[in-house]
Model the fold of this input.
Amino acid sequence: MKREIVQTSDGSTTIFLPDWNENYHSKHGAIQEAKHVFIKNGFAQFDQKEISILEIGFGTGLNAFITFLEAKKANIKVNYSGVEAYPVDFNEIAQMNYVGELQATDFEAEFQKMHASEWNENVKISNDFCLTKRQQFFIEIEDVEQFDLIYFDAFGYRVQPELWSTEIFQKMFTALKPGGVLVTYAARGVVKRSMIEVGFTVEKLEGPPGKREMFRASKVIL
Done:
């Protein structure tokens, strides 16, 4: 499938798939979307000193890198697992401008290490950030109550509706600890119904730039 490196509205880059007319991140701003959806409405909602995160769609590593930066500011230890069936080529990663756009040149080595590290191995990116990149299909996830937070960043429902099925969200619900939270840029009614069907309590929140709404789903303790 053809792939192009493009610039989004906030100046940060992403990968565009012309055959699907689909971007890895919002064309309205890759960094803005990541900060709004996954940090502001996900990571920043936790006040504990250690957190376990599962990312569905590791992609370019943008969400992981921003989480690394935010965790350093907040002095939080992060155990991060990123699932990706089709890893992004390192040559494409080299064209991503996240380090510069995030004014994080002091941590360029850590960004590079995230992508140079072996798949399916737990790697210590820093003293407080451990990363496991898992090359697997989402349907193969079998974790049970392992994560506090899930970043659900799969390709959109329009192009891959199977990734937003009840079966997938059941796996997400099972993977979360009691009281855990899943955040996603999506806000389709069919997605909400699938989440509710497996037991999630779903909130509709203000979306990132260019998108009206998004979902946050919680595994409520009864």
